[in-house]
């Protein structure tokens, strides 16, 4: 059971007091990295959902700098107190509301009040207040609330603000003020000097004509800076003098102040002046004052860190960061700061020279894509032997990421082209294929046409270098199928052969004549050549796959599957058909079965028998990915839960955003062997990984070696690798799987959520069977995902289950 | 440098704090406050700072020149290199003797981090003086410790323990990048070896003073100390279970680590032992000494027997040893896998099912294939294998080895599976090596050939071998296989490649001298003989089948002439359909024999055969088990189809030559009529005939 591929940039990181450690929230854990080496030192494990903020207890004296305490908040509704040097969980506060953001103003160690009594510690949290019933959707689910950490309770009735979305809270370095952004408003609060439960927190609101994106407080003066969606930076000076300095009830000063000239300040806003800077072409994502308040750092989508001199407005730049900036964190050490980038990397910068000292980088995050070209993307690809996953990055590269070691192996640059984060997307790497042994790679890139002119499809073949994940370009084929786009690319399992299929209705088999070159001394150009061209009734070819021994090539021509002899280019047979065009084909190991997937309005998962040339069985499921074992007759599919079932699903399930299910099948029978429900399944990937002997060596060897490991990667590129067969492992696995999932599971999921008809089903079961089990009490997931010997008899389960399936499609039943 | 002089070694070492630096040469410039010296593999330049009082020497620059540039060795040498893999093999620490430690990420092949001058990083340490840069530290041994996780939440943190030439022991927390602890002056005269076992939380160190120290690996507290030898200890090793401890100077001693009592003593190494390792069960010790070209295997059993159990020979002294056990199915004892790296950077791998067998086996070598050209110019930076570890045993007699090789500037990391008995050659890439100018031209050429990229454009399918798909019909398949080439013209081409005698009798106009001249042509007769279609007794004359032919001819309404004239398909079909099946079958037999015996030209015979097979297939198939005719027909057709390609090529070439002859308007009168024939016909008969003509008149061709 390996979990990895977490995002380092889901929330801002935090430095320890001596600036030697960086606390990064990575999924459900907080990872402690060394700033000098960039290596992982420790992990704080305890939260059950995404950790949303990390607050390090700041040191009041130089001696206490070595203290390593922090508070963390999470979407699971808890706030934890850690000693991260050991690391150890010290305290847990349960709020029971998903916390999106948290700030703690009075964090100077354990504060002592005037009378020697320890003063309570308060935190201001931004929570998502979810109502019980969703039909009366609440207009303002986002709330800013106050929480007493010492007494571990939420202060009742104190709701500072309500917003449509839960917003992040930003606190000033002096811990005097905090604020949130709410569309075109800034809402600022002043922390009461002596914080107690009853104190009224004063607030002011500043307005602007555009939506705000980011907010920063000056460390010493009453200056705030805010960025908006158009790239402007607004700086207010002397904000809140009127409201915050005045004691409650005295209104006399107001008239005096309003007569003063306040340049740039809108309406009745409480600030002395407001000035605007404009450099960024797109929205400002990062804004922070330097520790002495002389400079302002800003950054945005274009990947340039700009340093403004606050008094003059002069600029200095750190360009070519290569990815949009997301967060900026200053450390207690003025010469060290960190920036978090959208490509899942945290760069540690040395100031004032602004050079990158170290980078902490993880798996590349999925890149955004214009919606019209979304269909072009072929998903992630696995190298099953080496346990690598190949991920397309935004800057036209392929990242190879080791699933077992949770680290990057290499990056291959697919096309020679500079990437600027704010450029329009003109080129897309759409397809990626790896041969079974990982020695060959094929990529397809599409140059998007500008105003209908200049589109170009390009197929490239790569040969691996000395190391795994190291590839050199071997052949470029421009317009392999004339103008038509390539729908699929597949490699022959044993030989240097590949097939590409196009939407225009033909497929081409390519061979690599490496061997020829060795025979003849005459230098023949090594590279891939077209071997044969095939087509079937000019139908668009939508998917292609070789069988495990390579003797049969299956190409999907729309709704039918054509089987070819790849060597002689002979059409052997045609089988079909499905309702919608087939989008994916795969042979199941050495068995004689072929799995096809079609999507659209009539999604279908079909298993075809090659000996009978007919459908063996099929399901109406929207399948995202299929993984087949290389040497066994089982396969796993990643299916999306249908939308209709979401309505029926329980609140908890919907909140947890579980939208997919992994089903493990044996080709012989349509009854799944096991089931796991997962989140963010859309555009996810699935693969069986071969078990590496060296990997086993590292693990506990007394356990039986698993047949193969199943790897699932979700749309956020978080992945989990587990043994799908080991029943012993099941308990651990289930716990860990829940870690992947933001919400604690108590309701029903799996089949209930798909089909939602279990009431009737249960009653019938109770009447007909005498087997001592209570299905209504049991979770359906556990029924289907347990080992087979603890399951209720499948014969009984199956018939009713299939009936429930049939009831969904009455027309077909007739 | 006429203004410089070499000065006495001792004089300079007074200026430098650390006396343990080994100098190879020192140069001092007279008119500038700079001294330069070489040290191990490094050139250092020190600058005198006059501004401060007393004047201080500070490192001005230093450059590593490769493993052996300052020493006089011509072959690569990795003796002075310190390497250590981390527990999970994802990092490799390398120290090449300049006081810097580079941590390489073995996955990405990049430097993860570099430690220089770690001793001065702790403020308030009395022992470190500010002026001591990284050059003053001279590491002598390095060991990567993996501390077991005490708690689950704690990421297993790893320590890099280093011994220095001044006798200090330093422990570096690699992930934090900090000095974890330090034991100063633990071994006066220098630390020589560090050992640890995974099951105990302590490190054993040994040094020039002959003492062995036991140090708590978490805190750095000295737990115990005992004298193991009167001489300097050069190597130390702990059994994996932590119970026994071996030290070696020249003499190898095994101690019980609980009470530090000597268990056994082995003498046999003349010099200081450089590397030593326990087997996994602690029953054997493997050791190799400086200058020895073998590895000795000693059995630890408390016996008085003092000779080595096995000796593994290699070509150069070893610098690193690793060994693993594998399961022996069926037998009680376990097989042994040994891995060693020699000081010239070669890896040796032994496998034996038991210790006796190990003694006798030849090692499997893992070496680098070095480009001769390159190596001549880069004597100082020859690529070597400098670190390796036996990762696991894949199957009996083969193990997975993780190696780091190439140049120190840019090592390559690879997992290779070594099968015992099969030498492995690793390719090195010149990546990272600075190529001198002279070399660029040649190496570029080589690189260019390697990285040549084929580019195909829109017309990529033009040279496809099979541009048009075919449809395989299961019902038709059988018949098709019997007739892989139904085209009568094509089949006829086979007939042209014929045996002389045969064709003469038939009276073809083809002159068969051409066949003899064309050595590439496949002789059909031989081919048929080899397939057993023809037997040597069966002479290919028409006389061989006189009865058969006559009877068939008599019984059929067709005369022989029918099969030698060109009849249209329609007529053939009509006449075949008018026959009864039995008659047709007889005719088929006759025709096949005719074709086989060359009595009839395939051009005329094959349409008949085809037509009969199409129209009377049921009857023919029903007759088949008794009569092997169809199979022989199939074999024959197939063997002829093999010859078709070279013949077609030949035809094409001949036409080209003819066309050239035409252009040149040669006066040869004999050729002209033949040319005219050829213009009209693509028939191979003619072209072959033409070929003869061309060969008859080679002089004319040459004139062209």
UniProtKB/TrEMBL annotation, chain A:
Q: Sorted alphabetically, which PROSITE patterns does this protein's record hold?
A: WD_REPEATS_2, WD_REPEATS_REGION
UniProt keyword annotations, A-Z: Nucleus, Repeat, Ribosome biogenesis, rRNA processing, WD repeat
Which segments carry the WD repeats? 205-236, 277-318
SMART domains, alphabetized: WD40
Q: Which InterPro entries match?
A: Beta-prop_WDR75_2nd, Haem_d1_sf, Quinoprotein_ADH-like_sf, WD40/YVTN_repeat-like_dom_sf, WD40_rpt
Where is this protein chiefly located?
nucleus
Segments forming domain WD repeat-containing protein 75 second beta-propeller = 394-644
| Keyword match rRNA processing | yes
Task: Indicate whether Ubl conjugation appears among the record's keywords.
Answer: no
Subcellular location field: Nucleus, Nucleolus
UniProt superkingdom? Eukaryota
Q: Could you identify this protein by its name?
A: WD repeat-containing protein 75 second beta-propeller domain-containing protein
Record the organism: Protea cynaroides
UniProtKB/TrEMBL annotation, chain B:
Q: What is this protein called?
A: Small-subunit processome Utp12 domain-containing protein
Keywords of the record? Nucleus
May I ask which residue range the UniProt record assigns to the signal sequence? none
Localization in the cell: Nucleus, Nucleolus
Gene Ontology, cellular component aspect: nucleolus
In this chain the Small-subunit processome Utp12 domain maps to: 566-658
State the organism named in the record: Protea cynaroides
User: In which domain of life is the source organism classified?
Assistant: Eukaryota
């Amino acid at each position: 059971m390996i979990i990895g591929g977490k995002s380092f940039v889901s929330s801002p990181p935090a430095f320890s007091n001596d600036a030697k450690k960086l606390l990064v929230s990575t999924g459900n854990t907080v990872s402690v990295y060394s700033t000098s080496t960039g290596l992982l030192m420790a992990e704080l494990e305890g939260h059950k959902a995404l950790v949303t903020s990390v607050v390090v207890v700041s040191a009041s004296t130089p001696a206490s700098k070595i203290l390593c305490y922090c508070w963390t908040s999470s979407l699971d509704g808890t706030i934890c107190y850690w000693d991260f040097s050991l690391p150890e969980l010290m305290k847990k506060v349960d709020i029971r509301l998903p916390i999106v953001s948290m700030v703690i103003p009075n964090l100077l160690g354990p504060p002592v009040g005037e009378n020697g009594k320890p003063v309570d510690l308060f935190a201001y949290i931004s929570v998502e207040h979810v109502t019980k019933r969703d039909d009366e959707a609440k207009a303002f689910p986002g709330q800013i609330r106050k929480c007493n950490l010492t007494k571990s309770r939420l202060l009742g009735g104190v709701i500072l603000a309500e917003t449509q979305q839960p917003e992040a809270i930003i606190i000033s370095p002096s811990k005097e003020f905090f604020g949130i952004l709410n569309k075109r408003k800034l809402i600022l609060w002043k922390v009461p000097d002596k914080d107690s439960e009853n104190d009224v927190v004063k607030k002011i609101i500043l307005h602007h004509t555009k939506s705000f994106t980011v907010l920063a407080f000056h460390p010493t003066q009453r200056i705030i800076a805010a960025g908006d969606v158009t790239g402007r930076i607004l700086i207010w000076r002397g904000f809140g003098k009127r409201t915050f300095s005045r004691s409650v009830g005295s209104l006399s000063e107001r008239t005096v102040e309003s007569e003063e000239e306040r340049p740039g300040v809108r309406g009745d806003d409480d600030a002395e002046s407001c000035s605007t800077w404009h450099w960024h072409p797109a929205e400002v994502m990062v804004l922070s004052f330097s520790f002495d308040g002389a400079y302002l750092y800003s950054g945005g989508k274009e990947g340039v860190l700009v340093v403004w001199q606050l008094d003059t407005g002069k600029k200095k730049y750190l360009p070519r960061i290569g990815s949009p900036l997301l967060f900026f964190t200053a450390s207690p050490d003025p010469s060290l700061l960190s920036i978090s980038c959208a490509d899942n990397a945290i760069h540690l910068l040395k100031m004032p020279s602004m050079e990158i000292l170290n980078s902490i980088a993880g798996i590349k995050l999925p890149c955004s894509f214009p919606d019209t070209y979304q269909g072009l993307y072929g998903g992630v690809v696995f190298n099953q032997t080496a346990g690598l996953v190949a991920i397309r990055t935004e800057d036209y590269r392929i990242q190879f990421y080791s699933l077992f070691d949770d680290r990057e192996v290499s990056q291959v640059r697919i096309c020679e082209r500079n990437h600027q984060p704010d450029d329009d997307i003109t080129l897309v790497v759409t397809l990626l294929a790896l041969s079974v042994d990982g020695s060959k790679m094929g990529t397809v890139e599409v140059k998007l046409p500008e105003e209908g002119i200049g589109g170009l499809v390009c197929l490239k073949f790569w040969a691996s270098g000395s190391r795994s994940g190291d590839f050199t370009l071997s052949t470029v084929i421009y317009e392999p199928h004339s103008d038509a786009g390539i729908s699929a690319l597949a490699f022959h399992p044993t030989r240097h052969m590949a097939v590409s299929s196009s939407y225009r209705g033909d497929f081409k088999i390519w061979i690599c004549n490496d061997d020829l070159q060795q025979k003849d001394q005459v230098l023949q150009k090594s590279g891939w050549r077209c071997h044969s061209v095939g087509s079937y009734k000019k139908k668009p070819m939508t998917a292609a796959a070789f069988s495990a021994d390579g003797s049969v090539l299956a190409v999907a021509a729309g709704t039918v599957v054509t089987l070819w002899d790849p060597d002689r280019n002979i059409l052997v047979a045609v089988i079909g058909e499905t309702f919608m065009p087939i989008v994916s084909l795969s042979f199941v190991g050495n068995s004689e079965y072929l799995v096809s997937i079609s999507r659209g309005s009539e999604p279908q998962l079909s298993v075809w028998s090659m000996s009978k040339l007919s459908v063996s069985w099929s399901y109406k499921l929207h399948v995202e990915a299929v993984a087949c074992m290389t040497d066994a007759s089982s396969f796993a599919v990643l299916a999306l839960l249908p939308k209709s079932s979401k309505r029926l699903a329980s609140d908890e399930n919907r909140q947890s955003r579980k939208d997919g299910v992994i089903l493990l099948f044996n080709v012989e029978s349509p009854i799944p062997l096991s089931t796991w429900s997962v989140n963010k399944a859309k555009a996810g990937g699935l693969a069986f990984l071969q078990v590496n002997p060296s990997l086993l060596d590292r693990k506990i060897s007394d356990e039986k070696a698993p047949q193969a490991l199943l790897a699932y990667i979700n749309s956020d590129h978080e992945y989990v690798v587990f043994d799908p067969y080991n029943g012993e492992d099941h308990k651990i696995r289930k716990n860990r799987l829940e870690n992947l999932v933001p919400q604690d599971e108590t309701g029903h999921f799996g089949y209930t959520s798909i089909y939602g008809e279990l009431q009737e089903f249960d009653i019938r079961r109770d009447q007909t069977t005498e087997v001592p089990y209570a299905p209504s009490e049991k979770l359906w997931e556990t029924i289907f995902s347990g080992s087979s010997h603890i399951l209720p008899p499948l014969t009984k389960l199956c018939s009713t289950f299939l009936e429930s399936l049939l009831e969904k499609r009455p027309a077909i039943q007739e | 440098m006429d203004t410089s002089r070499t000065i006495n070694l001792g004089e300079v070492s007074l200026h430098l704090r650390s006396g343990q630096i080994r100098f190879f040469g020192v140069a001092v410039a007279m008119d500038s406050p700079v001294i330069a010296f070489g040290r191990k593999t490094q050139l250092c330049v020190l600058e005198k700072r006059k501004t401060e009082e007393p004047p201080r020497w500070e490192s001005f620059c230093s450059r590593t020149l490769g493993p052996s540039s300052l020493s006089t060795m011509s072959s690569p040498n990795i003796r002075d290199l310190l390497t250590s893999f981390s527990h999970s093999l994802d990092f490799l620490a390398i120290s090449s003797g300049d006081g810097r430690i580079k941590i390489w990420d073995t996955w990405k092949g990049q430097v993860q981090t570099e430690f220089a001058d770690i001793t001065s990083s702790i403020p308030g340490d009395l022992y470190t003086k500010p002026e001591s840069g990284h050059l003053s530290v001279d590491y002598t041994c390095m060991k990567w410790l993996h501390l077991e996780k005490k708690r689950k939440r704690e990421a297993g943190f790893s320590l890099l323990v280093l011994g220095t030439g001044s006798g200090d022991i330093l422990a570096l927390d690699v992930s934090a990048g900090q000095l974890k602890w330090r034991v100063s002056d633990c071994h006066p005269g220098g630390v020589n070896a560090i050992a640890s076992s995974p099951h105990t939380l302590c490190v054993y160190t040994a040094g020039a003073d002959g003492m062995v120290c036991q140090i708590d690996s978490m805190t750095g507290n000295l737990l115990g100390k005992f004298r193991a030898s009167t001489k300097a200890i050069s190597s130390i090793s702990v059994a994996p279970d932590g119970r026994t401890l071996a030290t070696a100077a020249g003499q190898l001693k095994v101690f019980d680590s609980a009470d530090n009592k000597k268990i056994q003593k082995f003498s046999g190494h003349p010099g200081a032992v450089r590397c030593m390792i326990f087997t996994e069960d602690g029953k054997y010790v493997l050791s190799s000494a400086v200058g020895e070209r073998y590895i000795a295997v000693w059995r630890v059993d408390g016996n008085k027997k003092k000779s080595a159990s096995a000796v593994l020979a290699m070509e150069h002294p070893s610098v690193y040893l690793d060994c693993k056990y594998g399961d022996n199915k069926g037998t009680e004892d376990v097989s042994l896998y040994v891995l060693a790296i020699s000081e010239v950077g070669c890896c040796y791998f032994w496998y034996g099912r038991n210790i006796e067998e190990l003694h006798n086996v030849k090692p499997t070598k893992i070496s680098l294939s070095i480009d001769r050209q390159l190596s001549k110019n880069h004597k100082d930076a020859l690529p070597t294998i400098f670190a390796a570890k036996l990762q696991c045993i894949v199957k009996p007699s083969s193990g997975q080895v993780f190696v780091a090789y190439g140049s120190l500037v840019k090592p390559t990391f690879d997992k290779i599976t070594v099968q015992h008995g099969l030498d492995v050659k690793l390719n090195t890439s010149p990546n990272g090596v600075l190529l001198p100018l002279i070399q660029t031209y040649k190496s570029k050429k080589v690189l260019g050939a390697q990285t040549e990229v084929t580019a195909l454009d829109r017309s990529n399918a033009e040279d496809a071998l099979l541009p048009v798909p075919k449809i395989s019909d299961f019902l038709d398949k059988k018949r098709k296989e019997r007739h892989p080439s139904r085209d009568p013209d094509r089949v006829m081409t086979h007939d042209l490649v014929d045996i002389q005698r045969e064709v003469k009798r038939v009276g073809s106009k083809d002159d068969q001298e051409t066949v003899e001249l064309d050595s590439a042509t496949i002789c059909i007769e031989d081919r048929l003989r080899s397939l057993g279609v023809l037997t040597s007794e069966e002479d290919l004359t028409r006389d061989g089948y006189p009865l058969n032919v006559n009877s068939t001819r008599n019984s059929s309404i067709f005369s022989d002439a029918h099969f030698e004239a060109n009849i249209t398909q329609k007529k053939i079909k009509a006449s075949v359909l008018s026959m009864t099946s039995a008659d047709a079958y007889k005719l088929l037999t006759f025709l096949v024999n005719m074709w086989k015996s060359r009595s009839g030209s395939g051009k005329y015979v094959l349409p008949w055969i085809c037509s009969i097979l199409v129209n009377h297939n049921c009857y023919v198939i029903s007759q088949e088990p008794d009569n092997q005719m169809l199979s022989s027909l199939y074999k024959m057709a197939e063997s002829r189809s093999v010859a078709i390609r070279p013949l077609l090529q030949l035809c094409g070439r001949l036409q080209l030559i003819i066309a050239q002859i035409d252009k040149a308007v040669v006066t040869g009168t004999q050729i002209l009529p033949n040319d005219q024939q050829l213009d009209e016909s693509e028939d191979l008969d003619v072209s072959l005939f033409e070929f003869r003509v061309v060969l008859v008149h080679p002089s004319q061709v040459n004139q062209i």
